[in-house]
Amino acid sequence: MALRITQGMMHAQLTRNISKNLNKMSDIQNQSSTGMKLHKASDDPVGITYSLRYRTELSSNDQYEKNTDQALSWLDYTDSVINQAGDVLQRVKELATQAANGTNPQEALDAIKSEIEELKSQLVDIANSKFNGKYIFNGENFTTVPFDTSAAGFDPKAIETDSESVKYALGANVTIGISLTGNAVFGDADPAGTGTNVFSVLDRLMTAMTPPTTDYDAISNEIPNIETSMDRMLNARAAVGAKVNRVELMQNRIADFKLSLTDMQSKVEDADLEQVLIDSTTAQNIYEASLSVGAKVISKSLVDFLG
Amino acid sequence: MTSTFHSLETSKRSLITQQVALTTLSHNIANANTEGYTRQKVTMVATRPMEAYGMTKSTAPGQIGTGVEYTSITRIRDAFLDAQYRDQSDIAGTTSVQMDTLSKLEGFVNEPSETGIRTVLSDFWNAWSDLSKDPENVTAREILVERTQALTDTFNGLSKQLSDLDADINMTIETSAEQINSMIGSIASLNDQIKKIESLGDNANDLRDQRDLLTDKLSKMVNVTVTDTEDGYTINMGGANLVTGGETTPVNAISLEQSYDNGTLTGGEVHGMFTSLDIAAEFTGQLDTLANTIVNGQFQVTIPKGSVLPGTTVPTTADQLMTVNGINGLHQLGYTLGNPATSGQPLFTVKTGFTSITAASIEINSNIAADSNLIASSMRTTTDGAGVSTVVSGNNSLALLMSQMTEVKFSFDETATGGGIKEATLGDFYSALVGALGVKSQSAARENTNAEAQLAQVDGSRMSISGVSLDEEMSDMIKYQYAYSAAARFMTTFDEMLNKLINNTGVVGR
Questions:
Q1: Which of A12, A42, A302 sits opposite B442 (nearest CB)?
Q2: d(C-alpha B300, C-alpha B292), whole Å
Q3: Residue in B106, B392, B400 closest to A175 by CB
Q4: CA neighbours within 13 Å on the CB side: how many for A171?
Q5: How far apart are alpha carbons A50 and B332 in whole angstroms?
Q6: How many CB atoms sit inside 10 A of residue B352's CB?
Q7: Do A48 and B431 touch (CB under 8 A)?
Q8: Considering CB atoms only, which of A9, A46, A167 is closest to B467?
């Protein structure tokens, strides 16, 4: 038996179809207005697991990006501080060379000595450099001043700085110690004053210039020790440079990773806008057609033609 | 031998019958849009012809027709389609409620977004990362407290939404039980009325329509099988009769739950509500597992060398792999900012009134919330000659370990509702949970679409048989109208014939 069609059926079918078309249109419009095809888990259950992972990794990645930036600032600051210390030593070396000349009168030596005294306290100041409120040459003890001039019996050459390095997390399971210990820059603690600790060298220089024990040979003997200290600082700067390289490498990797993560995230989450626009036009046409056909068909029945 | 007025009688019958047909037709048109209305048809039968078989039969030939009469007014309806409709209707009822619930759950989870658990968890780890760079910094500590609070708030909020949903569904089940009772009451009383009317031999068409409509609606609520008996409909839900003739067995939320538990309630919206409660409970369980695992779940962690473990004074000389119980366990391996060195307190605590960590009960330790210096970030102390331990506040080992927890695999309690996941990172567990929710929601939506389509299909078949077609009624109307007019015309003709016979004949002698 052929299906008997009634007005009610046509009306129900039309309503169903129009609502289906309208639903689809609203879905597409939502996609085009947000630019995303993934709005809730059921839109793409597999995709959402990727999406959540990418978002988490992007978030960690942004954090690592922040961390590398801060690590770089720390390292740059350390580098410039050590550079200043190097300049100080350069001046010390000039003064020592000048003082080693046996023709210098005591007055000249006194002047040189007092300049070295100043330079020494400048070195102490440098050794107490703070970055963001942290003493950069005291390892993990960065809240305490390493070369505390106000301490009783303060002697910079006897100071032992904290041996641990401040660590920054720059990636998943990647941590880098970014601080240098004060001893690595200024020499190991040397309470006896006989070693190559830069403060020991300065102390011995000044002692050699002080009468009655003025000793030109001793002064010139310290020149290689000054050079040793300068080399130590150069080495420290090289270490900083190497760390900067490593951090910059991490920075590049983080940037690359971010790019590929964003790319992958976009593939999972973003709507193909061209396709959406085409679909949107199609859906709109179909919707309008269903409305117009509905309007024409639904109103007509035999009633309209009976006189 | 027929009576002189025989034909008058015949046409009168015709007029009456066509008029009844037209009246019924008008009733059909009037109810073209009435929900549950079944088109009615007048059955016309030629009346018994003259003369009847018998001893007195004349010798006149032929059986002279005596016209028409209507024997019944019947509904055009197919009981088989009704049964099919009711079967399909309970499936559609279940799936629509399930779909609705799952889509609500998706709304609660709200992923992908910048406000869901994933985000607050990431923010939490990132706050530890920031703290690792500035362990003594009060701002970083306050931010970490805020992030921790945001994490617990998100869990609490989600849990609240879930328990609200649970309460809503339970409330709806109670309302549904009332609706069911009202429906079965009406059906039972219709059974009685129909029985009374039909015992006189008539068809109680419109009452039957009402009863069928109510039964259809009932089938959307619960799974029912309908048996048409002499006493009316017997309506059975999985073995128990809800309606037997004029009697009903009312339901309530408790009896419905029992039926669901013993497997007799298998379809319909109410069934969907019970399965929704299960779905919501499972999801709540998984969230609870997640919250509890964050706080207490075991994982392995490498304690860097140089760390001083609480209770000892000697720094470890080499990296040491340790099994730790959750973030709380890890936090207690570190030292707070204050001196003398004090090891950390549990970062998370249970809200008063609860016994274990769940999504609802998780909260930040109120001591820590009040004093961010109690956050442990250092794992190093120094001990002076007098044996007093001092925290190396710049040490950030614990904060670093915390910030790297995204990569660490936690052990999930298999006996709890964890979707069978034994070991996973917190992020992976969460995304598996959201993914599973998505799959469920997607398939519920698909099942619902299918069920609705099939229901529409069966309903279409039913409407095709029982629905009122205006075209059909109009053409029938013309048919009956002409039959009526013709009968009237015949009466006029016959009248004229009699007029001729009575008034214009036998005029002789006038």
A1: A42
A2: 17
A3: B400
A4: 15
A5: 34
A6: 7
A7: yes
A8: A9
Cβ contacts of B140 on chain A, cutoff 8 Å = none
- Residue B326 Rama label (left phi>0; alpha psi -120 to 50; beta): left
Give the distance from residue A270's alpha carbon to the nearest chain B alpha carbon, in angstroms.
12
Q: Which residue of A has its CA nearest to B390?
A: A141
* Interface predicted TM-score (ipTM) of this complex, two decimals: 0.87
Q: Which residues pair with B233 in a beta bridge?
A: B228
The enclosing H or E element of B461 equals helix B426-466
Instruction: Tell me which residue of A96, A130, A102 sits closest to A116, measured CA to CA.
Output: A96
Whole-number Cα distances in Å, B71 to B47, B59, B480: 10, 31, 17
User: Would you state the structure tokens that stand for residue B337, as one six-digit string?
Assistant: 């900012």
Interface touch B441/A42, C-beta < 8 Å? yes
- Tell me which H or E stretch contains B46: strand B40-46
Number of H helices and number of E strands within chain B? 12, 14
Q: Please state, in angstroms and as integers, the Cα–Cα distance from residue A294 to each residue in A72, A196, A297, B32, B372, following that order.
A: 69, 98, 5, 18, 67
Q: How far apart are CA A139 and CA A158, in angstroms?
A: 17
Q: B303: which 2 tokens?
A: 């304690």
Q: Does B437 contact A41 at a Cβ distance shorter than 8 Å?
A: yes
Sign of CA pseudo-dihedral B10, B14, B15, B17: positive
Please tell me the distance in Å from A173's CA to the nearest CA on chain B. Answer: 7
Q: Which band of pLDDT confidence, cut at 50, 70 and 90, is reported for residue B417?
A: low
Integer angstrom CA distances of residue B264 from B79, B227, B236, B448:
24, 17, 10, 22
Tell me whether residues A42 and B438 touch, CB distance under 8 A. yes
Could you tell me which of B118, B114, B122 has the C-alpha nearest to residue B402?
Answer: B122
Q: Do A44 and B404 touch (CB under 8 A)?
A: no
Distance separating alpha carbons of residues A71 and B127, to the nearest angstrom: 17
Alpha-helical regions (H) of B110-261: 117-133, 138-198, 205-221, 253-261
The rounded distance, in Å, linking the Cα atoms of A31 and B271 is: 34
| Cβ neighbours of A133 in B, within 8 Å | 137
> What is the dihedral angle through the alpha carbons of B233, B236, B241, B243, rounded to the nearest 10 degrees?
-30
Nearest to A6 among B396, B407, B469 (CB): B469
Dump the DSSP string for B17-34: HHHHHHHHHHHHHHTTT-
Neighbours of B252 (CB within 10 A): 14
Nearest CA-CA distance, residue A208 and chain B, Å: 38
- State pTM to two decimals: 0.87
- The 3-state DSSP class for residue B199 equals coil
CA–CA dist B165, B108 (Å, integer): 10
**Euclidean distance between CA atoms A271 and A43, whole angstroms:** 12
Q: What is the pLDDT of residues A21-69, one digit of tens each?
A: 999 999 898 888 989 988 899 999 999 999 999 999 999 999 999 999 9
How many angstroms separate the CA atoms of A277 and A273, rounded?
6
pLDDT (tens digit per residue) in B63-95: 888 999 999 999 999 999 999 999 999 999 999
Question: Which residues have a Cβ under 8 Å from the Cβ of A54 and sit 6 or more positions away?
Answer: A261, A264, A265, A268
